[in-house]
Amino acid sequence: MFSRQLLRASLAPMARKSFAPSFTAGSRFFSFTAENQPRIRIGSVAPNFVAETTQGKIDFHEYIGDNWIVLFSHPADFTPVCTTELGAFAKLEPEFTKRGVKLIGLSTEGVESHNSWIKDIEDVATGGKPFGYPIIADANKEVAFKYDMLTEEDFKNINSGLVATVRSVFIIDPSKKVRLIMTYPASTGRNSAEVLRVIDGLQLSDAKGIATPIDWSVGQDVIIPPSVSDEDAKAKFGEFQTLKSYLRTTKSPL
């Protein structure tokens, strides 16, 4: 598989153990079976967890606080596509911060490995600027399991050494609700600008009660939901254009 070729050479020779139904880490018990895996949908409360990161131990819900957050996973440390992605998000972090959004990455390796990898990211992807957001060390695969960040093959082998998480993206709001889920194969890099665009659309929709059309970007016309009457639409938005009885557009509210 092409995705396997992207992983570090050290992953390739790792022996696969037989699948076991459970995993014990310290005093915590995780049952890595499909029937015990959380069902995450848009609108679900994001599963909480406690984990070590490159910026210390966090309780995920406490870390979110009153912010929005983008949680995104990577197949492994020191992989080429991931290095470009983490660097791109790092460069865009000030734009996310302006919108009250935190960033946090994840890979199923340890903090020491992550910290070494960050040096490479700063060298080749951020122009030497410091890397600002934390990366979760998910060596026991708890978060990968809870957020279903694995391929079918790797889920079957979750108890055997390192496994490669897929490129998952979760946008989570301050109420800890999942607002967007995107999943990419390991071979395909994400579009960081698209994640930022979705944040803009979600926040505007929440604040103004509108919807955004395809390819929408900040400043472009928005859609008035069909549940709003023409009378209420005029009172709320002023002038609007009726393309169909169910499709009305108006200038983007400030």
TrEMBL record:
Gene3D superfamilies: Antioxidant, Horf6, Chain A, domain2 (3.30.1020.10), Glutaredoxin (3.40.30.10)
Entry keywords, A to Z: Antioxidant, Oxidoreductase, Peroxidase, Redox-active center
Positions of the Thioredoxin domain: 40-204
Record's keyword annotation contains Oxidoreductase: yes
Highest taxon of the lineage: Eukaryota
Pfam families (UniProt xref): 1-cysPrx_C (PF10417), AhpC-TSA (PF00578)
Keyword Transcription in record: no
Family of this protein: Belongs to the peroxiredoxin family. Prx6 subfamily. Belongs to the peroxiredoxin family. AhpC/Prx1 subfamily.
PANTHER family in the cross-refs: THIOREDOXIN PEROXIDASE, THIOREDOXIN-DEPENDENT PEROXIDE REDUCTASE, MITOCHONDRIAL
Function: Thiol-specific peroxidase that catalyzes the reduction of hydrogen peroxide and organic hydroperoxides to water and alcohols, respectively.
Protein name, per record: Peroxiredoxin Prx1p, mitochondrial
The organism of origin for this protein: [Candida] anglica
